[in-house]
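=== RUN LOG ===
request id: a7f3
mode: sequence -> structure
chains: 1
length: 432
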Amino acid sequence: MQNIDKRILSIALPSIVANITVPLLGLVDMAVSGHLGNAVYIGAVAVGSMIFNVVYWVFGFLRMGTSGMTSQALGRRDMNDVATTLARSIVVAMAVAAFIIILQKPLGSVALALVGASAEINAEAWHYFRICVWGAPAMLCLYSLTGWYIGMQNTRLPMFISIMQNVVNIVASCTFVYAFGMKVEGIALGTLVAQYAGLLVSITLWATTYGKRILRHVQWQRIMEGTAMRRFFSVNRDIFLRTLCLVAVNFYFLSAGAAQGAVVLAVNTLLMQLFTLYSYVMDGFAFAGEALCGKHYGAGNHVEFSRTVRRLFGWGFALTVAYTMVYAVGGTGFLRLLTDDIEVVAASAEYAPWAVLIPICGLAAFIWDGVFIGTTNTRGMFAATAAAMLVFFGVYLSLRSEWQNHALWLAFLTFLLTRGAVQSIIYWRNGK
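=== RESULT ===
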């Protein structure tokens, strides 16, 4: 058991550190825009960042699909497939990036129209969008490389790259804004520079760590091979559809809260930070599930596979207990650190008990996502998320007139529980 725990932690801990640094990119942009002397700049950066967060989240299948297929190939000791999977993923990433860049004007116009901000904010957000859109090749290739690293049981390199990106972003954004007197364009350029710096470092580290011993295994003629491409797109199609379900639930949660007024929207936004903090850690163990379960599954080692699943749930349960206790005791105090608005803090007390239940309801969903990605059972993951989405809308729409925001939180927690429950059923029905 100690060896299994050691392998899990060796993958999970660097992933957790990398996850924690991710919000810093947006936080730096917000901090710089907040000192430009006009609230319009804050809104423009917030809108622009949100658009790209959604776009890149939708194409997150490039990371997850690559991770599962690479870990399985590693388990089979099929280095040809290990190398070719990365090459195929990067080809697809570049094709998607080209699609985004070519259609940037209609995509940007539709996105800004959906957000519905003021004309002044939209004008500045467009400046942000038209610069950052050129970062699509870097970001999507980084997704492919990150997924491949995880599949290779190596999360230290993604951690280093993520930290480096944040440092570059801070330096570049501050330089463009304060040294060259730029506004939103300077913040966008800082983000763009950080994205390509991350890609450059990632490629350099790949070359020095893996280099020729992997490159010589790439079967160039198989990159576009029909059977392999169909499997690649089948796996990633299910992840893509599952992500759309997640986006639908999260977007509706936000909009339904906003429809109940500014105070409720603020309360929900703050309480969701408790979910975010929990997800940073649990995603690390999900990544460990992708890497280790995928490798054991590819090798046909069912004993180690089952042991790994049990230990992942063991770690998840321990962390869930810890998070639940902390949230129950200090959740309100944490909210006071985020805002000094007395009305918002007072209103949050009514809904805080729902947020305390987040770790308990979300445990199985996070762990199973990692296991299912590792085994490329993406159809089951999509089915579970789609079923949970229907439950979410059913619960909220049937109770909203009486329970209002309480119905929204009950629906969200039920969504998390349903995902985990359905995936548990699928796992046991498939013979573990």
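=== NOTES ===
The chain is about 90% helix and 0% strand.
Residues 262-299 form the longest helix (38 residues).
=== END ===
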